[in-house]
Amino acid sequence: FLRSLNQDDPSISLVHDMFVRNDTVYASCGYQGLYIYKFTGTNFVNIGSLTNYPGSGYKHSSTMAPGSNKMVFCDEVPTGLPAKIIDVSNPANIVFNSTFESTVNATTTPHNPYMMGPDRVAIAYYQDGLQIFDVSDPNNVVRSGYFDTNPNDCPTCPNPSYSGCWGAYVDLPSGIVLATDMQ
């Protein structure tokens, strides 16, 4: 344990998930949004944030391809929000590119994104399985593949809107993608 983020920024009440690249932390802070910090070796310095954006909700998780400033992120609550893509090359001036979704459905929710090389992202979706998108043009994202892990969904689950694909592992040398489904 080196240091707690809220020691340096007590305004952040929670970090649900974070993406870390070298000394930079991209913190998904729930309803507070995205906060970017540099870790200096002794403390965290806030270098940018995105708190107001189209389709905002509970900022859940994010990912970036190696060597890229293209970030894909997901808001988990409420259901039915689209995934988002932004440019974080200048953390003090984050550029919002676009929103995109697997299907137009009020219950499908992007949960966790995973980059597959520089231009494809796999997203684990509640109610919609594993979705793969071509993000080579961040202003025109195109769905390029999918696998519905539970085509019947789970109408008898305690909270059906949050049933389905939970996560994925996309980094196997074989190229095989593992998807986890809550059912």
Average pLDDT figure:
92
> How large a portion of the residues is in β-strands, by DSSP E?
35-45%
Low-confidence stretches: none
The share of residues in helices is: under 10%
Distance between the termini: 35 Å
Using the CA coordinates, give the radius of gyration. Answer: 16 Å
Determine the number of helices (DSSP H or I, runs of at least 4 residues).
1
Order of helices and strands: HEEEEEEEEEEEEEE
Largest sheet: 4 strands, antiparallel
Q: Give the helix/strand class.
A: mainly beta
Please state the overall shape, judged from the principal axes of the Cα atoms: globular
Strands, total number:
14
Going across the major beta sheet, what is the strand order?
A: 1-2-3-4
Task: Report on this structure.
The protein has one helix at 5-8, and strands spanning 17-21, 24-28, 34-39, 44-50, 59-64, 70-75, 83-87, 95-100, 109-115, 120-126, 129-134, 142-147, 165-169, 178-181. With 183 residues, the protein is mostly beta strands. The strands form four sheets. The protein has a four-stranded antiparallel beta sheet with strand order 1-2-3-4. The chain has a four-stranded antiparallel beta sheet with strand order 5-6-7-8, with no helix packed on it. Strand 11 (129-134) and strand 12 (142-147) form a beta hairpin. It is globular, with a radius of gyration of 16 Å. It starts with a helix and ends with a strand.
